Amino acid sequence: MRKFVFFFLILSIIPFVSSACDSDDDQFTERVIVNSDTTFVADTVFSSDTTITHGDTIIKKDTIIKTDTIITIDTLVFKPLDVSLYMEQHHIGSGSLQAADCYNDYLFQFQNLNDSVFIYELNSKRYLGSVALPRNYSNHCNNVSFSRIFLNENDLFPLLYVSGSGKGTYNNVQVYHIIKDSIFFTISKIQEIVLPTANTENNLYWTNVAIDNENGFMYVYANGDNKGQIAKFNIPNASVNQIKLKNEDILELFTVSIFEHAQGGFIKDNILHVITGVPHWGDRTTLRMIDLKRKNDLYTYNISELGFPTIEFESLSSYKDGMVSAANGNMGQGIYYIKIKNRE
Predict the structure, then answer these.
(1) Fewest beta carbons less than 10 Å away: which of 106, 164, 210, 249?
(2) What span, in angstroms and rounded, lies between the C-alpha atoms of 172 and 255?
(3) Cβ(298)–Cβ(289) under 8 Å?
(4) Structural domain range at position 41
């Protein structure tokens, strides 16, 4: 071991009266695309900010859905988000900055090919320094996910899972052990997890791993056959240096809308939250939320429309009552705070 030191959706089946969704935020809009397995309750009144599309019929503002009408919804696109610059980034070397995750106010952002890890203290908004790692040409570091598994009883940080995100040899996850003393951090790779590849019947490729710490599982979000796929695994025993997972290790597998260049993501309250999009390739940037219990898309937030059309958001981490996203540091883009607005 080498060590390197430094509708049940937000509509919530809305039993509104027509004024219940009035908002003083004129940016708030919603669009519901119908065609799945979630139903609105009878006599629901939709506000003037809402447009429901039901087949070829558009149900417009202040429409009452009658008791004999069942409308099902698939995807909700809307903009009740606050996105703001939280703190500046630091960047050294030529490699682009990629995904990050945080634990107890410490955020670790990885560089492409594993070159360096940049460490921040979020509460004080301080950059603490970087740790150099050996270059790994099969590790794009597309998602970073803290577990709640501690290698040693006195460790300050749980094991960290870093996704290679790709095909073939890129279908891997590197597991890291982090030690902090008074001023230094030590980051050591203790395990490699090899995921089922694009040659398997499940066609998992461009894979990213997010740890479900509330339920104790490992989820892979990936693309395959022009659709997005979500695969559920048990978290492998960390005492084994290399684990090669097979199709038969998949506990659950379901499809969602295709990921348009998936970036970082995390799981909270049985919801997979994922940032997608590479703007300089022509993508819009979105925040997607996928229900892991119902096994379907919930909603998609268009972040590009909020005034961030060119920023590549690389990561997504739960932080306080919102989220943080570290951007691609090649362009000095910063670390952003994202908060979903409450609906009264």
Answers:
(1) 249
(2) 21
(3) yes
(4) 7-78
